[in-house]
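Lecture 7, part B: from sequences to assemblies.

Below are the input chains for today's worked example.
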Amino acid sequence: MQKGTTKANKRNTSGSYDADDIEVLEGLEAVRKRPGMYIGGTGSGGLTHLLWEIIDNGVDEAAAGHAKLVDVIFHPDGSYEVADDGRGIPIEKKDGDITALEVVFTELHAGGKFGTGAYAASGGLHGVGASVVNALSTRLEVEVDRKGSTHKLEFFNQLAGHFGSGGRFTASHSLKKVGKVSSGRTGTRVRFWPDRDIFDQEANIDYEEVRERLGQVCFLVPGLKIRLSDKRKASKRTPEEFVSKGGLADYVEFLSGDTAPVTGLVRIEGSGEFTEKVPVDGKLTEVTRECQVDVALRWVNDYQTKVISFVNTIPTPDGGTHVAGFERSLTAAVNQAIAAADLRKLRKLKDDAKAQKEDVQEGLIAVVRAVFPEPQFRGQTKRELGTPELQKIVGAVARDGVKAWFDGVAKGSKKIHVKAILDKVSDAIVNRVSTKQALDNRRKAAQLGNSGLPDKLADCRLHPEGELLIVEGDSAAGPAKRARDSAWQAVLPLRGKVVNAGKGTKKAVLDNAEATALFTAIGAGSGPEFDLEARRYERLILLADADVDGSHIRCLVLTLIFHYMRPLLAGGHVYAAQPPTHAIIIGQDKEFVYSEAALDDRVFELAKKGRKYRVTRFKGLGEMDDDELLETTLNPASRVLRRITLDDGKAADKAFSVMMGAPVEPRKDFIIRNSQAYGHALDV
Ligand code: TTJ
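Predicted structure of the full complex, as structure tokens:
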């Protein structure tokens, strides 16, 4: 079969075409060229969309109070049928020979006249799509029951006419009376055959999906009976009927399942109006929009929240202005009730004793629906209401309704239910506040920022190829942060006491802020769970002064690594920077020496040569300027590092265990003396 409509229509067809037909084909050709723009795609989703375009018309008629039944049939030949018992699409001539009915199926956007549409509160996305369905079908038939007769019109490749008994199609604008009905009987029946050249080979309409949506629609149009029949050959299904008397109340009941209710049902209904400017006959005109608001909710014994929303009969899974209005008012009204109740368990929380949205909505099941003409939707997939005025309108209705329920003046409001909710929400507040406090305390103890990394860590960008410079004290941290290459060098200053990991319990180690900061910066855990592969740095470099205190802190860090992150040592990832003890300035040149002995040697040499020089002594890393620090400890081309081995770790640990318990002064002494005995272990 050919895709071009015009050519296809020339075959197997009699009757004459007129200028109107050419116009119809040109208009609908836009839909055939870009089906995705009208139905989202050409897969199953698009095909399903076609069916909904038709169903929504019947549902809208029912929502307007004119139909009680919508009948949906899946036929064996791949066609779909929808019938309602509404007023019937108007069959009067509208435009010369052409009936209103033909226009509905041939003109894009017919039906939803802006500003004063016949479908005052139609879906908005739907209800105007009958012509889109015709555009994407090879064949379509419509029957309207009115004034004692069934009036029929058919379409073949978009053009109106009738199929004869031989299957031959005759183009025509006139309706055919094909049967008699009782005089008061009205209704519309549409059957269409999707154009399989437009849709993907494997596209199909999922019965279960349609079933689920139809079940939902029932709750939105209380009293509407929906029948669904699958007459396809492979199907063994018997026809099903859906009906809900209670509307949104039934919906909330249905959504609650077997979860124990905490409250009875809260029903809130109200209305409001707003004005907007819309084009009427090409002129911007201010129109007043009436807006109904319908809310049903209840709390159940659960932690989850279900807030389901609709505009007219369209689901808004991403919420929008109507839901925002509802949620804000609900939170505000609950907070008012909480404040008025002056609950004992909230007193000690003072200013924190306020419910947030999450506290209020714990275990909430709510359905929110707004009904008004021509809603605007937001987002790519139009899953969210955008009409701004709805926030205020729904908000006001919800505020009054929820307040009335808490005040016990609403129908069905019970004191014990109100008390149960005040209890439930205040528990949620207490829980949230105490959990947050515990978390904050732990964060504070470990000085963790929101990233989960220590606040004082100046991280690098490259992981895990970079290196972590562990710096003693603040005075060296500043220059180190400035002089480093932040792409691959991170700086972690150790400020407080580092726990002696050789002695303390594991808890004492984990309670130590400096140890925790080091564990979290390295990010590979600690103790038996330490995972070398997870480390965030390739190298750890201890940067401490070349004095007694520096030696002490190096020893403590090394002992910590030895006991809690040993694979780092075993894998050769730990280094000590070797800061120079002195700089010798000779004219324009600067030399660094790394011990008193080396200084003596060099000075002796220079004196012998008769060279003039000046010596600066570094009491600590903090006394170096940025360039000096860069050259001696940061720049790989010029710095001197010493790799620390597992044996070094062992020695440090042993040195520490020997002196534990000794008084302070002798202890320092011990470190200095032993730094000789243990070779470089304490001299790292
Ligand atoms: C329009 O205003 C006058 C009274 O009838 C109104 C109308 O069009 N009603 C109507 C349309 N009821 N049902 C439909 C309908 C049903 C199906 C299944 C498909 C289509 C395209 C329309």
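Note for the exam: Residues 415-446 form the longest helix (32 residues). Keep this in mind when comparing with the next example.
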